[in-house]
């Protein structure tokens, strides 16, 4: 599978206020169709993108946070969250959405592909990626 | 071009998708199908209903590949292929079925 590359989508911004988070998500949804190895990384304010119970009624924008939960269906295998960024914002893994992954042919499944990792691992993962899209 | 459903005029965009998702009633699918000379059967409704549930849960219209897999899982393996879905919706399950279901066009669908 020499044509398959490791794509990493690096998300660093809060979900609303700029278009970056939504644009990143849209590109991820499209990239899945090209059968690449797609992973997502959430650092800095990007960790807010994955928080549960978002309510956007007050700002008149569409709440797209439920969409992250279907990424397993789009064959995203890994969603990494930087531990230091979470802690700096008083958040823990329990505050984040869970994303299931299942291979519908083999019925192999993972309950939650969201994984909190330390800074060293973040650096390693970025290093291992063939292509990094930064949003 | 607006469409007439149950005595109400509903706005659609240039490709025929509902502008306001909340306007949707089952009659929308009936009217759109009639314009396409298509008679809706329970098999069509299974897909339309699935799309509406998926959208309700995830806030997007699924890509065709995701739809195909999900249909296979929910409605039986023999239905989880594009041949079956194109048989029901000849203009493309992503586009046509999403339009009938009142959803926006799927992301990545050209």
TrEMBL record, chain B:
<dbReference type="GO" id="GO:0097163">
    <property type="term" value="F:sulfur carrier activity"/>
</dbReference>
<comment type="similarity">
    <text>Belongs to the dsrC/tusE family.</text>
</comment>
<protein>
    <recommendedName>
        <fullName>Sulfurtransferase</fullName>
        <ecNumber>2.8.1.-</ecNumber>
    </recommendedName>
</protein>
<dbReference type="Pfam" id="PF04358">
    <property type="entry name" value="DsrC"/>
</dbReference>
<feature type="active site" description="Cysteine persulfide intermediate">
    <location>
        <position position="109"/>
    </location>
</feature>
<dbReference type="GO" id="GO:0005737">
    <property type="term" value="C:cytoplasm"/>
</dbReference>
<keyword id="KW-0963">Cytoplasm</keyword>
<dbReference type="InterPro" id="IPR043163">
    <property type="entry name" value="DsrC-like_N"/>
</dbReference>
<comment type="function">
    <text>Part of a sulfur-relay system.</text>
</comment>
<keyword id="KW-0808">Transferase</keyword>
<dbReference type="InterPro" id="IPR025526">
    <property type="entry name" value="DsrC-like_dom_sf"/>
</dbReference>
<dbReference type="InterPro" id="IPR042072">
    <property type="entry name" value="DsrC-like_C"/>
</dbReference>
<dbReference type="GO" id="GO:0016740">
    <property type="term" value="F:transferase activity"/>
</dbReference>
<dbReference type="GO" id="GO:0002143">
    <property type="term" value="P:tRNA wobble position uridine thiolation"/>
</dbReference>
<dbReference type="InterPro" id="IPR007453">
    <property type="entry name" value="DsrC/TusE"/>
</dbReference>
């Amino acid at each position: 599978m020499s044509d398959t590359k490791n794509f990493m989508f690096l998300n660093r911004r809060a979900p609303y206020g700029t278009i970056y988070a939504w644009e990143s998500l849209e590109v991820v949804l499209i990239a899945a169709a090209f059968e690449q190895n797609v992973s997502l990384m959430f650092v800095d304010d990007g960790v807010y993108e994955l928080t549960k119970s978002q309510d956007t009624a007050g700002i008149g924008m569409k709440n797209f946070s439920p969409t992250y939960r279907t990424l397993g269906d789009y064959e995203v295998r890994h969603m990494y969250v930087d531990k230091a960024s979470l802690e700096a914002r008083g958040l823990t893994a329990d505050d984040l959405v869970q994303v299931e992954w299942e291979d519908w042919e083999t019925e192999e499944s993972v309950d939650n592909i969201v994984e909190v990792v330390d800074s060293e691992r973040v650096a390693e993962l970025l290093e291992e990626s063939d292509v990094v899209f930064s949003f | 071009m607006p469409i007439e459903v149950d005595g109400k005029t509903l706005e659609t965009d240039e490709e025929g998708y509902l502008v306001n998702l909340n306007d949707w009633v089952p009659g929308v699918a009936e009217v759109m199908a009639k314009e396409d000379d298509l008679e809706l059967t329970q098999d069509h409704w299974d897909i339309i209903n699935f799309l509406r549930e998926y959208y309700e849960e995830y806030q997007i219209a699924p890509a065709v590949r995701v739809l195909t897999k999900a249909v296979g899982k929910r409605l039986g393996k023999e239905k989880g292929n594009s041949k079956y879905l194109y048989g029901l919706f000849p203009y493309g399950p992503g586009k046509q079925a999403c339009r009938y279901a009142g959803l926006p066009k799927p992301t990545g669908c050209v």
